[in-house]
Design goal:
Layout lengths: L3 H4 L6 E2 L21 E7 L10 E5 L3 E7 L4 E5 L5 E5 L8 E7 L2 E7 L7 E7 L2 E6 L11 E5 L2 E5 L4 E5 L5 E5 L15 E2 L7 E5 L5 E5 L4 E6 L9 E6 L5 E6 L3 E6 L4 E7 L9 E4 L15 E5 L6 E5 L5 E6 L17 E6 L5 E6 L3 E6 L10 E7 L5 E6 L13 E6 L4 E5 L7 E2 L5 H7 L24 E6 L29 H8 L4 E5 L4 E6 L4 E8 L6 E6 L5 E6 L4 E5 L5 E5 L5 H16 L1 H6 L16 E6 L5 E6 L3 E6 L5 E6 L6 E7 L4 E6 L4 E5 L4 E6 L6 E6 L5 E6 L3 E6 L4 E7 L4 E6 L5 E6 L5 E6 L17 E2 L13 H6 L12 E2 L16 H8 L1 H8 L28 H25 L1 H12 L3 H8 L3 H9 L11 H15 L3 H15 L7 H36 L4
Parallel strand pairs: 54-58
Antiparallel strand pairs: 1-59, 2-57, 3-4, 4-5, 5-6, 7-8, 8-9, 9-10, 11-12, 12-13, 13-14, 15-16, 16-17, 17-18, 19-20, 20-21, 21-22, 23-24, 24-25, 25-26, 27-28, 28-29, 29-30, 31-32, 32-33, 33-34, 35-36, 36-37, 37-38, 39-40, 40-41, 41-42, 43-44, 44-45, 45-46, 47-48, 48-49, 49-50, 51-52, 52-53, ...
Length: 1048
C-alpha cells in the first residue's frame, strides 16, 4: 500500500513519537480490540433460544415475563404492553439452559452443554447478579429445568436431580433416578410438584414412568407406570387446578390426566394425530372458558415445537378439542432457509383469561379471551418479536428534508423470514415490523386458519402469504408523509394500473406525501413500495419491462422516482406518486430519432475520416443496454444522471430525464462489477468487483482514484462512512475491513467468529450496524473516533483484532467518559515517524508557533508602558486603627555623608563592572556574533523567539554598530532577518522584529553604509515574497468562486 509519510524525503528533523506508560508490563495487555469501533449492544432478540420463558405476578396489577436470549435474560412488563424493563448483567459465561422466577429474583442455569465446559446457577434481582448456587464438583450435565417451591431449589439435569436450600443457596443433595437399560433413566419430561404435597417432586423418565421423590429424605417414594407399553417417553408434566391430578404428555401425543393419590388414569386424550409432540401444558384458573358459552371451568392448552399451533381442550364430559389457535407462531421451515418456528411454551396467567406464548421464531406474545360472542380461540393482545431468520440487509434511515429523523435513530433490516423491520436505537419499544396487510385475515379466507380436526396436516406457515425475501433496499424521506400519508383505498402492491383504480389516489397523496421505501425481492420481477411513516406496505408493485427479476433498486433524492434494474439488463423508472412508468434506459427510439440515427450512420460511412476526428464520446439513441444483470443503481444528488453497473463489467451514465446514454466506463473483460455505493457530498462511487477489489470512481472526471485491496474472499457488503472518508467492507473470510480514502491505507480490521453478511453506517457517524451469518440479532458498534484519536497508519496482519462482538447486555463497550480518561495508546515499534511541523514545504510561507499576543505586545510595548505608568507616586498607608495589631518597623540608623559617598562610589563601580561583564558575556550577543561569522542564523532566531516582549525589546535596543575591527551587530541582525525571510519561516515575527528595529535604530541608517546595503537586500527579498503571495491570493480569489458557481 502507498505510504506518503514514509517515502517522502524530509528536509527538517524527524521526531520519534513519544511512548507513554513505558513501565507497563506488555504481557498484561492481552486483550486486542478494534482501533475504531467498540461493541455497543445487540438488538432484535426477544426469545431466540429454545429455553422456555418464566413469569411471576408483580403484586395484583401486572406480571413480569423473563426470556432467554443466549447469555442474557430480558424481562418484560405485561401491563406496559410487554415493554422491556430489565436486562441482566453481567452476562453468563456460557449459554443459558433454564430459567425460573421466584418472588423478586430470577434463577438462570448456564453452561454444561459441551463436555468439560463451565456451568453455574446464578440468581438475579432487577437485572443485577445477586448470588450464585454452588454446584457439585462431579456435575457434568446441563440443568434443563429449575423448580422452586417451599424451602427447596431443584435443578433437573439429564440423568440426575440437584437440590439446594432456598434460604442459603447451599447444595443439599443429589438424586439419581433408577438406572435401566437403553437410557431409560433419562429425565425427558422434566420435573414438577403438586400443591399440598410437601417436599415431593415428580420426575418424568424416558421409559414412560414417573418417579416421586422426597427431597427432605432424598428417597424414592413411588413410581407411576405408563398407561401402555408403547406410549413413549414423558415429554411434559403439569399439575391441574384440581388436587392430586397430574397432566402427563407422552412422545406419541397421548395426554393423560392421572390421579396421583389412587394411581389411576381419569382421562386419556389423543393429541398426537397431527404427529407433533406436546412439550408444554397449561390450565386456565379463572373458572371460565369451557362449555358452549365459556362459563364453565376446565380449559387446558397444549402445544409443541413441531408446529406453530396452540390447542385448547374442554376437559368436561370426557374431553374434546374446543379450538385451535392456528399460526400462533411460525412452524418450523422445511425449506433450505433456516427459519425458526414452533412453540416453546404456553402458559395461562394465574386467575386471568390471558395466555403467554413464546416461539422459536424469536417472538413473545400475549393472547386474551374477550371476544363477544364467545370464541374458543383468543385474540392477540401484545406482541414482541424480531426476525425469525438470519438478517440479510441493513440500511440506516436517511435524514429527510427537515431533519426530523436526524441522529441515526432508525435502522431498517430485512431477513430470510420475508419481513422488513424498523429498529429504534433510542427506545426499544418503538421497533416494529412494517405491515404487509392483515396476514391472519387473509389466511382465514384461504382456509389456513380454519378450525379443522387434528387429523389434518400441520398448518401452512403464515410467512408463505408475505412478499418474497428482500434482497435490496432504497429509501428517500423527502416526500414521506409520516403517519398522515394517504395510502389510498385500493389494495396494497397493485400490479399495474387498471381502470378500476380510483383517480384521486395520486391527487390526495400529492398533498399528504407518498411511499418512501422501495425493495427488490428474490426471484421476483416486482419491486414493492412501502410507507415508512405509516409502517405499512405501499400501493404499488413495479414490474420490470423486460420480464427479468429485480436485482437492484434506487430512489431519486427528491423522493419522487424509483429506479429498478432487472436480471436481463433493463432499467426502468416509475413515479411513486402515481405509480406510472416514466422512462426506460435506454429509452425507446421514436420514428424521428430512428430516421436521424440512420442518417448519421450513413454520413459516418461516407466520411469515416471526419468521424475519427470527433472528440469526446457519442452514443446513439436507444442503444447501450446492459448485456447482463444490473448489479447496482444510483441517482446522483441533482437528479441529473442515473449510474448503473452490471456483471458485464461496465459502468453507464444515463441522462435521467431522457434515458440517453451519456458516458460509459468499460472494465470488461478484466472484472465483473457486483455492487455500487454512492456518497453524495463527495460525488464518489465505490464499486465491488469479482477480483476482490473495491474501486472508487469520481463521477465528475470518470476516473478511478483508488483501488482498495485486502479481501481474501468474496465481498458480502460494503458502505461509505457518513463523511465519505472511510470505506467499510465485510467479506466471506470473516473480516470487516476499513480503508482511509485520503491515504489509501487499511486502517482497521475486525475478525469475526462468523462471516458478516450485511453492514450499514449511520448518517451521524455514531454507529455501525452489522449482522453475521445465521444470526437473527443485529450488532451495533459505537464509533470511538468521536471521542478518541484513530491513527491512519496502514495496519499489518498482526494488528487485526479478533473481537467477540456486541452483546445484548451491552457489556464490553466504550463510551465518551472512557475516552476522556484513557491515556494515549502506545504506538508499535513499526510506527511511521512523525514529521516536524516547523515547515511543511519550502515553497510555503510558514508562520511561527509563537503566540500572537507576544509579537503584538512587542510592537506596542512603548504604548503599553505609557498606559501602565502610575499617575502619582505611591503613598504610605494610613495609620491603622488602635485595635489592629501592627508590626513595628526597625529604625534604620542614620548614615553619615562621608560613608554615604563612599558606599555610592562602590555601588556605581560594581554596577559598571557588572554591565561590562554582562555585555561581553551575554548569550544574545554571543549567539548573534557566532551566527554572523558562520552565516547560519537558525540558533540565534530560536533564542530570539524564546524571549519575552520586554526582553526582546531590550536586546534590540542594546545592539551596537561596532567598530571596523569588530562585528557590526546591526548588520548581523538585519542579515538574520533576511535569512529567515528567504527560508519563508516565522513570517509575522520577522515583520514585527524589523518594525521594532527600524523604530529604534532608524537614525543609524543615514551614516552606516553597511547597514544600508543590508536593508536594501532585505527589502528586495520582502518585495519578491510579497509579490509571490499576492499573485497566489489573486489566483485563489478567481478560481474558488468559479468552482463554487453552480452554473459553470
Amino acid at each position: 500500500m502507498p505510504s506518503s509519510l514514509v517515502n517522502q524525503p524530509q528536509d527538517g528533523p524527524i521526531v520519534k513519537r513519544q511512548k507513554l506508560n513505558g513501565g507497563e508490563n506488555p504481557k498484561r495487555r492481552t486483550k486486542r480490540e478494534s482501533r475504531i469501533f467498540a461493541p455497543f449492544r445487540t438488538i432484535g432478540l426477544v426469545s431466540s433460544t429454545s429455553v422456555p420463558f418464566t413469569s411471576i405476578p408483580l403484586g395484583k396489577t401486572t406480571f413480569q415475563i423473563t426470556t432467554s436470549v443466549g447469555r442474557c435474560l430480558q424481562t418484560y412488563d405485561l401491563k406496559r404492553g410487554l415493554n422491556l424493563v430489565f436486562l441482566t448483567r453481567p452476562q453468563t459465561p456460557e449459554d443459558i439452559t433454564a430459567t425460573a422466577a421466584w418472588k423478586d429474583v430470577v434463577f438462570a442455569a448456564w453452561g454444561g452443554i459441551q463436555p468439560n465446559a463451565s456451568h453455574g446457577l446464578w440468581i438475579f434481582r432487577r437485572g443485577k447478579k445477586l448470588d450464585e448456587c454452588v454446584l457439585p464438583s462431579d456435575l457434568q450435565e446441563p440443568i434443563r429445568k429449575i423448580l422452586i417451591f417451599g424451602t427447596w431449589i431443584v435443578g433437573c439435569c439429564t440423568t440426575r436431580i440437584e437440590v439446594w436450600k432456598a434460604s442459603t443457596y447451599e447444595h443439599y443433595t443429589t438424586l439419581f433416578p433408577t438406572a435401566t437399560s437403553k437410557g431409560g433413566n433419562e429425565l425427558t419430561g422434566g420435573i414438577s410438584t403438586m400443591p399440598t404435597y410437601l417436599n415431593k417432586i415428580f420426575a418424568g423418565r424416558k421409559d414412560g414412568s414417573i418417579e416421586i421423590w422426597n427431597l427432605s429424605s432424598g428417597k424414592l417414594i413411588y413410581t407411576l407406570l405408563p398407561p401402555t407399553i408403547d406410549c413413549g417417553a414423558v415429554t411434559a408434566l403439569q399439575p391441574t387446578p384440581a388436587l392430586s391430578l397430574l397432566a402427563i404428555a407422552y412422545s406419541t401425543g397421548l395426554i393423560v390426566i392421572h390421579n396421583v393419590r389412587t394411581d389411576k388414569s381419569l382421562l386419556q386424550l389423543n393429541g398426537g394425530l397431527s404427529k407433533s409432540a406436546i412439550t408444554s401444558i397449561s390450565f386456565r384458573t379463572d373458572d371460565l372458558g369451557a362449555g358452549e358459552d365459556g362459563s364453565k371451568p376446565g380449559v387446558m392448552a397444549t402445544t409443541g415445537p413441531d408446529n406453530g399451533d396452540v390447542t385448547f381442550w374442554d376437559l368436561n364430559g370426557g374431553g374434546r378439542v374446543m379450538g385451535i389457535l392456528r399460526g400462533a407462531h411460525n412452524p418450523p421451515s422445511d425449506s433450505q432457509v433456516i427459519v425458526g418456528g414452533g412453540v416453546s411454551k404456553v402458559e395461562f396467567l394465574p386467575g386471568q383469561p390471558i395466555i403467554i406464548t413464546s416461539g422459536l421464531d424469536n417472538s413473545l406474545k400475549s393472547w386474551i379471551f374477550d371476544e363477544t360472542p364467545y370464541s374458543a380461540v383468543p385474540r392477540i393482545l401484545h406482541s414482541r418479536s424480531g426476525h425469525a431468520a438470519p438478517v440479510t440487509r441493513l440500511h440506516f434511515l436517511p435524514n429527510d428534508a427537515d431533519g426530523a429523523d436526524k441522529g441515526g435513530k432508525w435502522l431498517v433490516s430485512a431477513g430470510m423470514d420475508r419481513s422488513l423491520w424498523g429498529w429504534s436505537l433510542r427506545r426499544d419499544g418503538q421497533s416494529t415490523e412494517l405491515s404487509q396487510g392483515n396476514i391472519r385475515k387473509k389466511a382465514k379466507k384461504l382456509g389456513i386458519l380454519a378450525n379443522v380436526s387434528l387429523a389434518n396436516e400441520p398448518s401452512t406457515s403464515l410467512e408463505d402469504l408475505k412478499a418474497p425475501e428482500v434482497t435490496c433496499i432504497a429509501m428517500s424521506l423527502n416526500r414521506d408523509g409520516g403517519m398522515g400519508a394517504n395510502a389510498g383505498n385500493g389494495a396494497i402492491w397493485q400490479k399495474g394500473i387498471n381502470a378500476q383504480k380510483g383517480p384521486t389516489d395520486a391527487t390526495a397523496s400529492g398533498v399528504t406525501g407518498w411511499e418512501s421505501v422501495v425493495t427488490g425481492h428474490r426471484d421476483d420481477r416486482y419491486a414493492r413500495t412501502w410507507f415508512w411513516g405509516r409502517k405499512k406496505a405501499g400501493r404499488w408493485a413495479f414490474e420490470t419491462k423486460d420480464g427479468g427479476n429485480v436485482t437492484s433498486v434506487a430512489m431519486s433524492p427528491c423522493g419522487t422516482f424509483a429506479v429498478i434494474g432487472s436480471a436481463k439488463g433493463g432499467i426502468d423508472t416509475y413515479n411513486l406518486q402515481s405509480g406510472q412508468h416514466r422512462q426506460s434506459y435506454p429509452s425507446k427510439v421514436t420514428p424521428a430519432q430512428a430516421k436521424k440515427l440512420k442518417l448519421l450512420q450513413l454520413q459516418a460511412l461516407d466520411n469515416p475520416v471526419a468521424d475519427e476526428r470527433k472528440t469526446g464520446k457519442s452514443f446513439p439513441f436507444g442503444l447501450g443496454r446492459h448485456s447482463k444483470a444490473v448489479s447496482g443503481l444510483v441517482v446522483d444528488s441533482l437528479n441529473k444522471n442515473v449510474i448503473s453497473c452490471s456483471s458485464d463489467g461496465k459502468i453507464k451514465f444515463w441522462e435521467f430525464g431522457k434515458g440517453h446514454l451519456v458516458d460509459e466506463i468499460d472494465w470488461h473483460p478484466r472484472v465483473a462489477i457486483t455492487g455500487i455505493r454512492y456518497h453524495a457530498s463527495s460525488d464518489l462511487i465505490a464499486l465491488t468487483c469479482d477480483d476482490l477489489t473495491i474501486r472508487v470512481v469520481d463521477i465528475e472526471t470518470k476516473r478511478t482514484i483508488r483501488e482498495l485491496w485486502g479481501c481474501q474472499k468474496g465481498i458480502n457488503d460494503f458502505c461509505f462512512s457518513n463523511d465519505g472518508r472511510w470505506i467499510l467492507a465485510a467479506s466471506k473470510d470473516c473480516f470487516i475491513r476499513v480503508w482511509d480514502l485520503p491515504t489509501g491505507h487499511m486502517i482497521d480490521a475486525i475478525k469475526m467468529k462468523s462471516q458478516c453478511t450485511a453492514l450499514a453506517f449511520s448518517g451521524t457517524g455514531e454507529f455501525l450496524a452489522t449482522t453475521c451469518e445465521g444470526q437473527v440479532g443485529i450488532n451495533i458498534w459505537s464509533n470511538k473516533t468521536l471521542f478518541t484519536h484513530a491513527p491512519t497508519r496502514h495496519i499489518s496482519e498482526q494488528d487485526i483484532a479478533e473481537v467477540s462482538g456486541p452483546t445484548v447486555s451491552g457489556e464490553g463497550g466504550h463510551g465518551l467518559i472512557d475516552g476522556a480518561f484513557n491515556e494515549e495508546a502506545k504506538e508499535d515499534e513499526d510506527s511511521a515517524p512523525a514529521i516536524s511541523l516547523e515547515q511543511l514545504s519550502a515553497d510555503m510561507v510558514t508562520l511561527s508557533m509563537v503566540p500572537k499576543s507576544r509579537w503584538q505586545t512587542l510592537l506596542h510595548l512603548d504604548l503599553i508602558k505609557q498606559r501602565n505608568k502610575p499617575t502619582e507616586a505611591p503613598k504610605l498607608p494610613e495609620k491603622a486603627p488602635f485595635f489592629l495589631p501592627s508590626l513595628e518597623k526597625p529604625q534604620v540608623a542614620a548614615i553619615s555623608d562621608e560613608e554615604g559617598k563612599v558606599s555610592d562610589a562602590v555601588a556605581e563601580r560594581s554596577r559598571i563592572m557588572k554591565m561590562d561583564r554582562t555585555a561581553s558575556e551575554g548569550v544574545f550577543t554571543i549567539a548573534l556574533r557566532a551566527s554572523g561569522e558562520s552565516k547560519d542564523y537558525n540558533a540565534f532566531i530560536e533564542q530570539l523567539k524564546g524571549l519575552s516582549p520586554s526582553a526582546a525589546d531590550l536586546q534590540i535596543r542594546s545592539l551596537n554598530p561596532g567598530e571596523e575591527s569588530e562585528s557590526d551587530e546591526l548588520v548581523n541582525f538585519v542579515e538574520a532577518l533576511t535569512s529567515r525571510l528567504r527560508q519563508r519561516r516565522d513570517y509575522e515575527l520577522v515583520q514585527a522584529w524589523m518594525a521594532v528595529f527600524l523604530r529604534l535604530h532608524g537614525d543609524a541608517v543615514a551614516y552606516d553604509q553597511k547597514l544600508t546595503e543590508a536593508l536594501k537586500v532585505w527589502r528586495e527579498c520582502q518585495e519578491a515574497e510579497a509579490t509571490r503571495i499576492g499573485n497566489l491570493i489573486s489566483f485563489c480569489n478567481g478560481v474558488v468562486p468559479f468552482l463554487r458557481n453552480p452554473l459553470m
